[in-house]
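Escalation from tier 1.

The customer reports that the assembly of two entities below gives different structure tokens on two consecutive runs. Tier 1 could not reproduce it. I'm attaching the input and our single run for tier 2 to review.
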Amino acid sequence: MLPLSSQVINLLAAILLLLAFAMLTQRRILSLINLFALQGLTLALSTAVVAWSTGQSHLYWSALVTFALKVVVLPWILHRLIRRLNVKWDVETLLNIPTTMLIGIVLVILAFNLALPISQLAGTITKSTLGIAMASMLLAFLMMITRSKAVPQVIGFLAMENALFFAATSATYGMPMVVELGIALDVLVGMIILGVFFFQIRERFDSLDIRHLEKLKEE
Amino acid sequence: MEIFFVLGSPLLGGVLLSLWGHRKFAAELNSLMSVATFAAAAALTVRVISDGPMITPDEQFFVDPLNVFLVALTAFVSMTTSLFSRPYMRIEQAHGKLTDARLRLYHSMYQLFSFTMLLVLLTNNMGILWVALEAATLTTVLLVSLYRTPASLEAAWKYFILCGVGIAQALFGTILLYFASERVLGSGGGALLWTHLQHVAGSLEPTVMSLAFVFLLVGYGTKVGLVPLHNWLPDAHAEGPTPVSAVLSGLLLNVALYALIRCKVLVDGALQTPFAGNLMMGFGLLSVVVAAFFLSRQRDIKRMFAYSSIEHMGLTTFAFGMGGPIASFAGLLHMTVHSLTKSAIFFAAGHAAQKSGTQIMDDIRGLIKVNPTIGWGLMLGTVAILGMPPFGVFASEFLILTSAMRQQPWATPFLLVSLGVAFAAIFSKVQPMVFGDTNAKRLPHPPALVPVFAHLLIVLLLGLYIPPYLADWYRQAAKLIG
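Tier 1 run:
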């Protein structure tokens, strides 16, 4: 019987994976952003639980930063962006959804196999969740590949960063604080630059469909 | 102390230029800050030559033989590029390609880009190294799309997404590295410090480290431009403004390779097998071969030289993958001379394209008649990058080839054929551009090409004579790399 805190963390990890699948299948951009915020919330909660059960006080801070950045700031920026750009329409996927789901399941199995030798080495109470972190990363990657619009691709990118963060907490109780702050800063700056960039793309092409951005090819 | 000047000067420059980057004196201020950075880097270099490696009291920054010469090189090329960019960007502005706001963005980001690269080189923390390398991508994304043409937006988007995904893999690699080191060094700040890791490399968990290296290689390799992760590189180089192409090709690729080398040293220590070296040789050789065969298909001058950068970075990666004192020495020398030569070529090519109003090589003709300085700059740069003696590239390529013959004879024919193909492709395209017939008028004003000839002169000198302290440096750094 696992201690309660481990069970809670495993539960949150399972929710994280579920959300990753939900994002993979979600067609509407607005719901996609909400799912992303929910994923951030799960992440912040699980970090806080790890902090509480292990007494690693710096993890409280990173839970706080995660909450501020991924539940409040980034979704707010994204919401503002899609309102200003007026891109609430359904997202087209390049592959149909059942196929994506099947590929996703294969990826999850792969991730669990890959993570097995590492999680056996880990001494943390959260080691069983490393496979989930890796699976979420691969699912986010899959989402980036299968979407043709710019905003969902970016959400896929951010979801990938979430998964990496989860991997860091589950394998090592988080990276040193200075590194974590640096990563958070990079993500924030990257998001702002992307915001500027979206407007440039829109101004030029009247659309955010990145299929316009496939002209540069080797002839 | 010098370390803080080296980092502080471009950071201050970035802040000042974000306020004044559109004023009349912005280009001069940009050059001034870069000169100050170079002066600080020179002082740092002198200090390290006399006192040996150093580390700051809080252990966050350090200088050893491997990074000191890259710091000096980075500061030097940033300086000459800023000197080149002053007249070049002024002409671009006169052509109506840039507004005040974009010029401000350009100057500010240029300084911040130098800052992030120097931070990558000087930091002792493998996590901060990742953060700074990602920041280097972020600062240049908006520079690539500076002209806001459809092609430049596409290039910038590709650059952002591909490098973003790549660097995310490197983050996972860094997490795994921390995971392995934490078991030896204990959790907390110390476990990612290079100076600590280096001593305990032998006791890091081998399975985790090999998995970490695969992710780090994919991640940092994307930024180095290794095939098959190179797709962003030709686009970003061709569509950005020329000074940005010059620093991307001359500096950023080097800096990313530096990050990879640091990781390789740790993985070698942990595994005691040539696993990391073999992977690097494989990717390096693939890059050389693929890039060489893509060269002949290019029509855009900056795109062609971008492929040449992929080829040369592949060659350097191959050299470091082989390992051993001579190959690593050659790799370091090749990093130096490639960086100097390639940025010189981009300066000359940028002026040639600016003058002809196009980057398509078929439309650039008779540079030697229109403007002999540009023509000779491009020709000499091309001859140098193709590895003709007596330029420094010849020396480093010769060393790489001879050590390949001794250590990895199977790879030699691939390298020789690729170098030959690259020679034929580039030379046959540059020759008509320089000596072909034209009826274009002579340029009214001579372009400022002092940086081009300064770079080529250093490359020439390095081919003829390597000063003993420099050779000693390379040897020490090569010993560190193993």
